[in-house]
Structures
1.
Amino acid sequence: MMLHGRSRPSRITQKVRERDERVRANLEQYGCGDRYIDVIISDFSNPLWREGVEFDAIITDPPYGIRESTEKVESKATSKQNTRTKDMPHYPSTSHYSLQQLYMDLLHFSAQHLKVGGRLVCWLPYHRDDYTNEMIPQHSSLVLVGNSEQPLSGLTSRRLLTYERRDIHATDDSEQPSCEFPNSYDFRDRYFNNAPESRTERRTRKAEQRELGRIEALKRGKIITDNKEAKNNLNKSRFN
């Protein structure tokens, strides 16, 4: 749910977040800085936009559950006794937001808020062995006008899907999108469990390699220092 933060980047090869790594800088790079208005952080499963709001285009890269978590704010049926004081921060409970439900919500939102002729552009991740045309989400108010593949690895790809809002009189809640996936399809689970080694095995192997490197360095007489504080100070200095 964090669109931009000053913490450690999610990219595994990047240790420090760059100062210009933000949405506004991206628009300025393409000469569209004057079109930047603001950033809103919200839970997409509970849209905050009022009825009647229309957009010319919606361009999005939904989370796949790999670097970003796929979660939504959860409303609990039973409430516990509130022990939180007014000065304490509130962290809402979250639950899993399935890829299928996310795309159904995205298409339905687009059908409600795109202008006629407006376009929705989004990425759809999948395991290459699983792909069929039936996996492409469909909505009665949206026409698929573009579908191109970008390989991510030998096992996974993603497709850039472009939909156009059709000229119809109205859309209502009865026009639900159809979104077909293999039974119990979970891109995140397929991504990690079909790798040559599991995530736990990879972390264990790398930890063992680091420990061996530390022992070898001590044998050579090297003084081992903790660079965590130095990295934190470097990260803070980029935003001061």
2.
Amino acid sequence: MSKTSPLMREGALSRLGSLRRHPAVAFARASLVVLIALNAAVSVWLIAEFEGQYTEGPPSPARFYALAGVDGEYTMIDVSIENSTRLLVYQLIRDDVGPEDDVGGGAGGGDDGSSDAPTSSEQDSVNRLDRARTWIQVTVGLLILLEVLVTFVGISGWFRAAGFLAVLVAFLVVLPLAFIGDNPNFADPGSTPNSAPEEAGQAEDDDQGAFVHEETDFGIGLRYGGFEVSMMYAGYDLGLVEEDNRSSVRETPPEPGTKDAASYVKFDSTLSLRFGPSVVLILALPVFWLLAPSGRKRDATLDESE
């Protein structure tokens, strides 16, 4: 009995291997792969969420929330602000303070040199997501074609693996970078997601000159179907400090409990990027290829040798 058990085990494994490479199983696998790829191509690709709140200072507790969704045709963005009255009052009572060494000279020629730049940068930003969509559609179509060729023609499975990697790069790398490049102000509470990049850059320069003794914190972590970035920014807003005291506040932080200490502002925020469920399901395709490998070419070789 013990002598025949290895033979029985080998026979069972052989029958199981033949079943995994059966044409009907290969056809079912190819159909499932095509359906998953097509479903991913027409579903939501990327979901971006931004949530930020002023936790200290005059604008507290103003809260920002932005939600964006990207699919094969559209980019939908929704922005909401809670406790906006505190934020509006904060913007009204503070003074505009530029960098300490800011001098008005040299501004005359800046308009002429930058007049043509917004047009080209705006055109590039608009086309980033369009190019990413085209790249995704091409790679998904190529993956479907390679799956059909591997199943019914018998080409090497390495071509299909290369197509699968191209799809992953398109979804996981190209698409998020294109979204951030097309919406550079999505996670900027000081401007709307559709604000011009040059306007946002000018506002950032003003903020850098207005805030002193800045504190920043940054962290990144994984979440289901994507990742999340947590950010913290704090500092003393010179726009809330009397003009006579600004030089002293620039040098040393004000003592707690003083009037100038009330200029301390802190903002906590989180930005999460997660992929649609259909995109996450694409990661299961290699499992199907392992469970039901394509053995058309190998079986033909074995038949010829016999």
3.
Amino acid sequence: MRRIRIEYTTTDAGEQIAGGRQVANTDSVKNSVVELITVGIFGAFVGCLLTLFLVEKFSATSDHATLLAGFGGAVLGSCLSAVVSFILAKQASGETLSRDKEARRAEQKAYVLRLTVKASVVLSDVVAIQKTIDQSLSEANDRKLTGQPLWQRVLPIVGSYQTFDIDPSELSPLIAAKDNDLMQASVTLFMQHRNLVEAVKLYGEKRDKVKAIVMTHFNEAEGVITSGLTQDQMSALLPVGVELESIIKQIRAMLIDLKQIGERVTFGVGPAMRKYLGDDTIPVFGPPKEEAKSPAT
């Protein structure tokens, strides 16, 4: 067996231990430096962040103050502008409403005038037809023909046969005033007047048929013609005479009602609209100042 001699010295061991301690101290210093550098970098980073934060806050505060001042000025200017605009708009709106009100009032007055004039013309036509019939009956009575049927005493009525249509707009003032009685009376007046005109025309047409039936005449004295009829002519004349008598009686009855309705509308619309619109310039139609005469029979 081969023996190997190994020698250990204290110095070497101490040097080894010292060298180990130096290495350990160096590592510790390095670690401390690294820690210091790390802390420094971290501190610098935090400082930068704080600096940036403060700068940002200061800048934000400055911008906020500037923005607040600008916003306040804008709000104040907007408020003043809004107040001025509101005053001008209110004034313009008031003027517009006033003009619209005057325009509506003028329009309603025009409708009232048109309705009143139409009613007046219808009333005049009714009165004219009534006078024509009364005159025929009066002349027949003067000729001692009172006992004869009406159709033999009332001559055909000559007229314009003009009728009128009522426009809904002409009734709008009465509707606005809630005067239902005058509104219904106006509608009835024009509708019944149309029926009256048709009846008068029919009476004239039927009356002309008498001339085609009665063709033999003997004499004429003071507007009275004496005629002769055969049995066939009397048979043909009988139904025509019945129709004529019925028509003329209906016409006379219609005239009484229409005259009352016509007077109510013609003389009543003006005062009613003056009261509703508060305008005394609206024309008012009144009845003629003459003595009333009872119709002939």
